[in-house]
Design a protein that fits this description.
- Chain A: This is Amino acid ABC transporter permease.
- Chain A: Belongs to the binding-protein-dependent transport system permease family. HisMQ subfamily.
- The complex is a heterodimer of chains A (390) and B (366).
- In chain A, helix 3 packs antiparallel against helix 4 and helix 9 runs antiparallel to helix 10.
- Chain A has two domains: 233 residues, MetI-like (MetI-like fold, Orthogonal Bundle), CATH 1.10.3720.10; 68 residues.
- Chain A starts with a helix and ends in a 5-residue tail after the last helix.
- Chain A has twelve helices and eight strands.
- Helix content of chain A is 67%, strand content 7%.
- With 366 residues, chain B is mainly α.
- Chain B folds into two domains: 225 residues, Orthogonal Bundle (MetI-like fold); 42 residues.
- Chain B is 68% helix and 0% strand.
- In chain B, helix 6 crosses helix 9, helix 6 packs antiparallel against helix 13 and helix 10 packs antiparallel against helix 11.
- Chain B starts with 18 loop residues before the first helix and ends in a 7-residue tail after the last helix.
Chain lengths: 390, 366
């Protein structure tokens, strides 16, 4: 019957055929437009005398970069400058993610607080920061707050810390010979602690006897590391910042560009995370808490074993997109000269070499892979935490 | 004699569980931790609020011609007063401000007409989307009916911010619908084209798209053909927000039960008929809050055009900060910009919450 019908319909009225034709047309259009743009590109590049390719990465860059965690001088290549910028982007993104999560959790819990005043303060914080453009906040921290700090000769001093226009100066730890021993001891103590937790859990499932594994392992790690540190003869010396008449030298310095980007990114994203945390906790039915209480669990365990695991399921997917946003928003650092990827590659390198396609392509590739890796990791974590239905 | 049961009147609740005293006790002093939190909060308020009030109002200077007039030690609002026109209109010629104002009033009047019952809503929407942009463009740019030409390079301030935001969201809306439908299509090539477009754009920051618009688009055009920087940036912003819009709309499409699709098919509607008459009206209604949120995000993101050399509200403030007469008024400038952005964004987010409540007609589980 149905075969009979389909032979009667005209060729164009068949849904399958129409889909085929439509897709063929789309494909032709996409390819044609792509070819046309590519053709124009080649002609334009030829006219302007720009040679394509990534050879420029091996040429000397000739510009300084303010913050570099690996060795870098002006004589180094564009390739090395790219790596330096890449590291800067990673560092600011990672530190931002950690700080924003801490701020977000605290503010989210504060907004749910029993205390009326605390809840209102958290609400004001969240609603203010969420509704202001991030770039404005970065400018505010950089040009209004940090630029208003005193000159180096009038630095604000807290013990060995100095605060002035040029940044925050702190003691820089320099590791001496015995430090390897301390690090080995630290790693071993962590391994032992994990073993202890596994053992405690197994024993609890077998015998029902409970052992305070988390506190014990924390104490274990601290004790072993401190003992090893003393045994090795305290192998750390500090390079203290010294204040001369007009300047502060030595020590470790956090430049204002870095501080402004970090504060702006983490407080801004923190406000969004706070809302996510609040929504996650509110999504757990109150009956769960009541049931847990009637089983006799104390409040702390109720939160840790009943409410939090269920809230996390709601929290994680939007949290992922906030982390992604933060990583992408770190590119705004370019506006206040924090030398991250956009500033170095799409700014200086592009201006000096004119390789627009390569530099912008490189940046998009990096952000693309950064986004993908964060979302892969969070998807894995999400799967691990998600409801296992029986 | 029948015994009548007379319950004795209820006792009043204990004195310490109702009224202001109980409320204060419960919210501020119910436990040692709570007391500590109250004290800390009060201390934070004490640190922040009095100096801020002092700076913003009491010690502020409201008029003057240079920083030297601001001697009271508080905020120098005279700076904002002097630069107010620039912050609003950029370098648009002063004699032509009425054109921007007219366009704005016209838009508000048109949108307000939605509230009138007798007006045909579809026609009104058509006028706003198709006719109004043309009128507004000629008002802004001039060149017809004896209006003086105003170069787009002179458009700036809050005017440019609003323009970018509104054009970005309106133009990205149809594109977003097409992309969302394409992503849910059964045709593999259509689907993959849409997925690649959406995911590529969402993976990169707006700043790279803006750089692309300002540096790379000219390279892809045939020799001699070039268009205005503002238009290039608008295209960039539109493509960017279309990808986000598509994801919001896709959420709405997924929330429509399968029965609706099947019922539309069973009625013999074609694909486009069933989408336009059955699915999209329901799906779009569900995602209005999401669309408003996308708009808020886009509105805040328009500040990024400053990085590619256009002077929106924030850009004009940055430029004004370099005025030698007004050195040291950075904070005032940012406070003013912050106030404007906050009022607009917060207002829109409240609006979206109100719409959400109004449209919550029982689809969701309560």
């Amino acid at each position: 019957m149905s075969n009979n019908n389909s032979t009667n319909t005209s060729f164009l009225n068949d849904a399958g055929n129409r889909a085929l034709i439509f897709q063929a047309v789309l494909l032709v259009v996409v390819v044609a437009v792509g070819y046309y743009l590519f053709h124009n590109l080649q002609a334009n590049l030829e006219n302007q005398g720009i040679s394509t390719g990534f050879r420029f990465l091996n040429e000397p860059a000739g510009f300084p970069i303010l913050i570099h965690l690996i060795e870098y001088t002006e004589a180094d290549t564009y390739g090395r400058a790219f790596v330096v910028a890449l590291i800067n982007t990673f560092v600011i993104s990672l530190m931002g993610i950690v700080l924003a999560t801490i701020i977000g959790v605290i503010m989210g819990l504060a907004r749910l607080s029993q205390n009326w005043l605390v809840a209102r303060l958290a609400t004001v914080y969240i609603e203010t920061l969420r509704n202001l453009p991030l770039l404005l906040q970065m400018f505010f921290w950089y040009f209004a707050v940090l630029a208003a700090l005193p000159h180096p000769r009038d630095s604000i001093i807290f013990g060995d810390f100095f605060l002035n226009k040029r940044g925050i100066y702190s003691p820089n730890p320099i590791f001496q010979d015995g430090m390897d021993f301390v690090i080995v001891a630290f790693v071993l103590s962590i391994v032992a602690a994990i073993g202890l937790i596994v053992w405690a859990k197994k024993r609890q499932t077998l015998t029902g006897e409970w052992f305070p594994a988390y506190w014990t392992s924390l104490a274990l790690i601290i004790a072993v590391t401190v003992l090893a540190f003393i045994a090795a003869g305290s192998p750390v010396e500090f390079d203290l910042p010294q204040k001369s008449r007009f300047n502060v030298s030595g020590g470790m310095v956090l430049v204002p560009e870095f501080v402004a980007v970090l504060i702006a990114l983490s407080t801004y994203t923190g406000a969004f995370i706070a809302e996510i945390v609040r929504a996650g906790i509110l999504s757990v039915n109150w009956g769960q808490t009541e049931a847990s209480r009637s089983l006799g669990l104390p409040d702390g365990l109720t939160q840790r074993l009943i409410v939090l695991p269920q809230a996390l399921r709601v929290i994680i997917p939007p949290l992922t997109s906030q982390f992604l946003n933060l990583a992408k928003n770190s590119s705004l650092g370019a506006a206040i000269a924090y030398p991250e990827l956009v500033a170095v590659v799409m700014g200086t390198t592009l201006n000096q070499t004119g390789q627009a396609i390569e530099t912008i392509g490189l940046c998009m590739l990096v952000y693309g892979s950064l986004s993908l890796s964060i979302s892969f990791f969070m998807n894995w974590y999400n799967k691990k935490m998600s409801l296992v239905e029986r | 004699m029948a015994i009548e049961f007379k319950p004795s009147p209820s006792l009043p609740p204990p004195q310490n569980s109702v009224g202001a005293v109980a409320w204060i006790h419960k919210n501020f002093f119910s436990s040692p931790l709570n007391i500590a939190l109250t004290i800390i909060s009060l201390y934070i308020l004490y640190l922040l609020v009095p100096p801020m009030v002092q700076w913003v109002f009491i010690d502020a200077t409201w008029s003057g011609t240079s920083k030297a007039d601001c001697t009271a030690g508080g905020a120098c609002w005279a700076f904002i007063a002097v630069y107010f026109d620039q912050f609003m209109y950029g370098l648009y010629p002063e004699a032509e401000y009425w054109r921007v104002n007219t366009a704005l009033v016209l838009l508000i009047a048109l949108v307000a007409m939605f509230a009138i019952k007798a007006v045909n809503k579809a026609m009104l929407a058509g006028v706003i989307i198709l006719v109004y942009p043309v009128v507004a463009y000629f008002l802004f740019a001039g060149g017809v009916f004896g209006l003086a030409v105003v170069e787009t390079a002179n458009w700036g301030g809050l005017f440019l911010t609003t323009l970018l935001g509104v054009v970005g969201i309106v133009a990205s809306f149809p594109l977003g619908i097409v992309l969302a439908l394409g992503r849910r299509s059964n045709m593999p090539i259509v689907k993959s084209v849409c997925v690649v477009f959406i995911e590529t754009i969402r993976a990169v920051p707006l700043i790279t798209i803006l750089f692309m618009a300002s540096v790379m688009i000219p390279l892809f055009l045939p020799d001699g053909m070039n268009f205005n920087k503002l238009l290039r940036v608008v295209i960039g912003i539109t493509l960017f927000s279309a990808a986000y819009m598509a994801e919001v709309i896709r959420g709405g499409l997924q929330a429509i039960p399968k029965g609706q699709y099947e019922a539309a098919d069973a009625m013999g509607l074609t694909y486009w008929q069933s989408m336009i008459l059955v699915i999209l009206p329901q799906a779009l209604k569900l995602v209005i809050p999401g669309i408003v949120n996308t708009f808020i995000g886009l509105f805040k993101d328009t500040t990024l055009v400053y990085i590619v050399g256009m002077f929106d509200l924030l850009g004009r403030i940055q430029a004004a900060n370099h005025d030698a007469n007004w050195l040291g008024t950075t904070t005032e400038g940012y406070a003013f910009a912050g106030f404007v952005y906050w009022v607009i964004c917060f207002g829109m987010s409240r609006y979206s919450m109100a719409v959400e409540r109004k449209l919550d007609t029982g689809h969701k589980r309560k």
